[in-house]
Amino acid sequence: xxxxxxxxxxxxxxxxxxxQLQAQPYTWQDTLRGSITAERSWWDLDYYHxxxxxxxxSRSIMGSNTIQYRVLExxxxxxIDLQAPLKIDKVVQDGQELTFEQKGSAYLVNLDQTxxxxxxxxxxxxxxxxPRVAARPPWDGGVAWKKxxxxxxxxxxxxxxxxxxxxxxxxxxxxxEPDSMLMSVTVPNPLVDVxxxxxxxxxxxxNNTTTYDWFVANPINNYGVNINxxxxxxxxxxxxxxNGILDLDYFVLRDNLEKAKEQFKQVPMMLDAFEHWFGPYxxxxxxxxxxxxxxxxxxxxxxxxxxxxxxxxxxxxxxSNSGWGMKFDFIIIHESGHEWFANSITYQDRADMWIHxxxxxxxxxLYLEYHYGPRAAAEYILxxxxxxxxxxxxxxxxxxxxxxxxxxxxxxxxxxxxxxxIINDDQLWKEILRGLNKEFYHKTVNSADIEGYIxxxxxxxxxxxxxxYLRDERIPILExxxxxDVIRYKWTNCVENFAMPVRxxxxxxxMWLDPDQSWKKLKLPSDIADLKIDPNFYVxxxxxxxxxxx
Length: 550
What we know:
The protein is an alpha+beta fold. Among the domains are: 38-261 and 281-298, tricorn interacting facor f3 domain (Immunoglobulin-like); 477-543, Sandwich (Immunoglobulin-like), CATH 2.60.40. It has helices at 10-20, 28-34, 38-41, 257-263, 266-278, 330-337, 354-372, 374-383, 410-423, 426-439, 447-458, 463-471, and strands at residues 43-55, 60-71, 77-81, 87-93, 96-103, 106-110, 120-129, 142-147, 153-158, 180-188, 192-194, 198-204, 209-216, 228-230, 232-241, 244-253, 288-292, 297-298, 304-306, 345-347, 443-445, 477-483, 486-492, 502-506, 509-513, 520-523, 531-533, 540-543. The strands form 6 sheets. It has a 10-stranded mixed beta sheet. Strands 15-16-17-19-18 form a 5-stranded mixed beta sheet, with helices on one face. Helix 5 packs parallel to helix 6, helix 6 (330-337) packs across helix 7 and helix 10 crosses helix 11 (447-458). It is globular.
């Protein structure tokens, strides 16, 4: 499903980046991976059928991926991505084996059949090998080949950032998603595979293996696709949500069933909160699954993975040091929040990863607000400020598969909390959050899309705000000087044209100031004892005692 218009990409973009390589720390492979190349832009993904056999003993995968696509422009070369040490064995179209050229992780396939505009075609990509072992999933991804406490294989994939092509051949760029997908995963008995969507069929095979067919009825991003293999047991429940009955399925290791039945009671609580704030769960047809894995967890679409040890907090810790972080299981709440912001609303370029992580970090406080009230939410999110580095901009360079500062999490959440103060209308804020999930439902977006939508609904020019918090690493400082009954104030340490209104308390009385980057003056009826900025604004202050500001 191609939701962007890539006309300005292609050959010119690659040429432009080749000129910049001497000045940037990027390689040609970064460009092939991160840009919408000419060999990608001409075809639109429609459907995948990933049909693989996984052998935990040899740590290998073999099989095929059928790629169904619609021709948008005339072209005879298709880019398919697969990372070493896996290799493509052959590519077939209409029964004919095709030639291809390997350029690192990009395979340029020469299509013999004329690609007529508007026609739906298929290629079948056969591949095999031993995929990269995940060094530190989910941050340094690949395939985790582990054992459970009973010695059974315990296998899972996690590949955000490094790319889905680390374990299966695909169009490994976030701008384009298939409208649906079938996953046929064959594993040794008695292991179970759990993947995305709904389980369609379980087929016993003659060679002591079983094939699990999982079907995803909605668009799905590359890194959201996963396989999870283990000695799983299953239980289920139903959730009565905004769009009807939602299937909730839980797959956990056999020894953890009773712990899961207690800890996973937070899933309906999560759905109550997030459907309130964001609108209906985006994948009713595919259901919601929580699946135990041998790493911390990840937001795989309709197959959220869990490894937080059946405890509240983040590995048993409160990241905010407020106490409120121990009221919920961080992985259940955070990773499930990504179903709205990451899996339904998906960034087109990794540079805009804040769209996933900023909103989902903020969703943690919204969960607390729904269940425990506004004070709990504010104390939690303000408590996370100690984790902000302000080291570099949140938005990174585009078209090279780069992410910005890790501040996209905690600073991103505090940015949104600050924005809510500026809008100063809780009902409108809720309408914006739900509106985003309606406007960009199952779409890929860029930061400008999100920024523009919020500005339109808020009826405010917020360019200065997003430039400051997303494209600059500095925190704005409100400089002020109090002289008797007069306060002088302005913004410093900020981008050009920064002019954010701010709520303050002067002599304990609430009022709004409208500073920009020139000194302004406010005279009050009596002397000013003190000034305090509302702590819900993520800014700094500096009191000037020097003379000569007139």
